[in-house]
Design brief:
This protein is mainly beta. The chain folds into 2 domains: 1-30, no CATH class; 34-127, Sandwich (Immunoglobulin-like). The chain has 2 helices and 9 strands. It has helices at 7-10, 17-28, and strands spanning 37-41, 46-52, 61-66, 69-74, 96-101, 106-114, 117-124, 145-148, 151-154. The strands form 3 sheets. Strands 1-2-7-6 form a 4-stranded antiparallel sheet, with no helix packed on it. A 3-stranded antiparallel sheet has the order 3-4-5, with no helix packed on it. Strand 8 (145-148) and strand 9 form a beta hairpin. The longest helix is centred in the first third of the chain and has 12 residues, at 17-28.
């Protein structure tokens, strides 16, 4: 597969350099089918990532959040030691790393592992200054003052 070069687009933009990394990660992922996972929208602000991890236990898993990237990884099993024991090995327990880029407003609430499923709960927290708000109209009342450089100006 050819590498996608986004440098012509990035020459005329400022602050979008992380978009290049997002595209590279999306295109460059090797085995995108293992381990299988779901992303659920529980309600307007709550999400859950569920990964099917048959054969793994909690001690095998590593979950890390670094600079907005949630990384779930595990080391593979020593399959050579057990090759004579199995006639067929259909449950894969191979090493993996799966990454999810989270928006700035997404917070990881926690994770739990049950019946071979890893569930990571996420919640969107919108800061007050980004939430919609009502602006009152002052009908003939005092006009609010605007402060510029320490001096008050009438609005």
């Amino acid at each position: 597969m050819r590498a996608l070069d986004l440098s012509p687009l990035l020459k005329s933009t400022i602050g979008f350099d992380q978009m290049n990394r997002i595209f590279e990660n999306a295109i460059g992922n090797g085995d995108v089918s293992y381990p299988p996972y779901n992303i659920e929208k529980i309600d307007q602000d709550d999400y859950r990532i569920t990964m099917a991890l048959a054969g793994f236990n909690e001690a095998d898993l590593n979950i890390e959040l670094d600079n907005g990237v949630l990384t779930i990884s595990a080391e593979g099993a020593d399959e050579e030691a057990d090759t004579e024991r199995y006639l067929h090995r259909g449950i894969a327990k191979r090493a993996f790393t799966r990454q999810f880029r989270l928006a700035d407003t997404i917070k990881v609430l926690g994770a739990h592992f049950e019946n071979g499923l890893l569930m990571i709960d996420l919640q969107r927290e919108i800061p007050e200054h980004l939430k919609p708000r009502q602006i009152k109209i002052n009908n003939g009342q005092e006009i609010p003052k605007i402060v510029k450089d320490g001096k008050e100006d009438a609005a």
